[in-house]
From TrEMBL:
It comes from Hyphomicrobium denitrificans (strain ATCC 51888 / DSM 1869 / NCIMB 11706 / TK 0415). This is Proline iminopeptidase. It is an enzyme of class 3 (hydrolase). One of its GO terms (molecular function) is aminopeptidase activity. PANTHER family: PROLINE IMINOPEPTIDASE. Transmembrane segments: none annotated. It catalyses: Release of N-terminal proline from a peptide. SUPFAM superfamilies: alpha/beta-Hydrolases. Keywords: Aminopeptidase, Cytoplasm, Hydrolase, Protease. Residues 36-296 form the AB hydrolase-1 domain. The active site is at 110 (nucleophile), 266, 294 (proton donor). Belongs to the peptidase S33 family.
């Protein structure tokens, strides 16, 4: 990727011990003492990226980019021990207290929106605002849609490739079959499923994905993607949320200004979820990007997020 301007480079970075053997990587970008903002990456398990820094105004904002447990530069890498939604919410509170922040703006997309909502609903008094993209509420129905029902309708050839690699006896429950393999510690069992899962999810996230087959063998030069493993852990445990919890507790967001940026043709996190959240949260504005899917890199998405972050109080 292109080198970012000096203003977007971290002025500090540290590892914070949050207990349970976990150390959380936090980098600070922008204006020390400026408007505090926490960026929450997706996945779960993807980690913060350099590009995420460019959503913000470094002359105004004090941005904290946080790698969640098991993700990015946090340690231990890919650890799913003591790694739940409640742990991640607790980590955010520990980080806020460490930096002596009274209130902060939370920004996140996809799983990052889930975590932001879980935190804000538990600690509304600590949140000045929310800018969210591609709403995901952590329900079984959303997972079924994202990996099974949606692809069957919109990418049937891709779904067939995903399913038919499995033995015939497992094809009736392909999601469970992949999750079981991804949760197996043996690399001979989980490596190829991880590569296939990653390619499948990536193809579903792009508005103009290139046609092609999912990997059929392990390429020794391929880097093992982190997100399938952490995602499988969270899927297996229903994202450590009660059924319908985040929508039910959206009443706790009353008085918190919000802006939701939603791709109209997002196959992984469809618009109906964002609409349901906005209906339960009167202080939020819902903005559809008419030619976008799930990816933050789709045209118009990052520009809309930048505007929202700039305008929200």
């Amino acid at each position: 990727m292109k080198t970012l301007p000096e203003a977007f480079r971290p002025f500090d970075a540290r590892m914070l011990h949050v207990g349970d053997g976990h150390w959380i990587y936090v980098e600070e970008v922008g204006l020390r003492g400026g408007r505090p903002i926490a960026f929450l990456h997706g996945g779960p398990g993807s980690g913060s990226q350099h590009l995420h820094r460019t959503l913000f105004d470094p002359a105004r904002d004090h941005i904290f980019l946080i790698d969640q447990r098991g993700a990015g530069r946090s340690h231990p890498y890919l650890s799913c021990d003591a790694n739940t939604t409640a742990h991640l919410v607790s980590d955010l509170e520990a980080i806020r207290e460490h930096f002596d922040i009274a209130k902060w703006l939370l920004v996140g997309g996809s799983w990052g929106s889930t975590l932001a909502l879980a935190y804000a609903e538990k600690h509304p008094e600590r949140v000045s605002g929310l800018v969210l993209r591609a709403i995901f509420l952590g329900t079984a129905e959303e997972v079924e849609w994202a990996f099974l029902e949606g692809p069957k309708i919109f990418r049937p050839e891709l779904y067939a490739d995903f399913r038919d690699w499995l033995p015939a006896a497992e094809r009736s429950e392909p999601l469970q079959a992949y999750v079981n393999r991804l949760c197996n510690p043996d690399p001979n069992v989980h490596t190829l499923p991880a590569l296939r899962w990653f390619a499948y999810e990536r193809a579903l996230s792009e508005i103009a994905a290139k046609p092609g087959k999912l990997p059929a063998e392990v390429d020794a030069a391929s880097r093992l993607p982190p997100t399938p493993f952490v995602e499988a852990h969270y899927i297996r445990n229903n994202f450590f949320l009660e059924p319908g919890q985040l929508l039910r507790d959206a009443r706790n967001l009353a008085g918190i200004p919000g802006h939701i940026v939603q791709g109209r043709y997002d196959l992984l996190c469809p618009p109906r979820t964002a609409h349901a959240l906005a209906s339960a949260w009167p202080d939020a504005r819902l903005e559809f990007i008419e030619t976008a899917g799930h990816a933050m890199s789709d045209p118009g998405v990052m520009d809309a997020m930048r505007r929202a972050i700039s305008e929200i109080s």
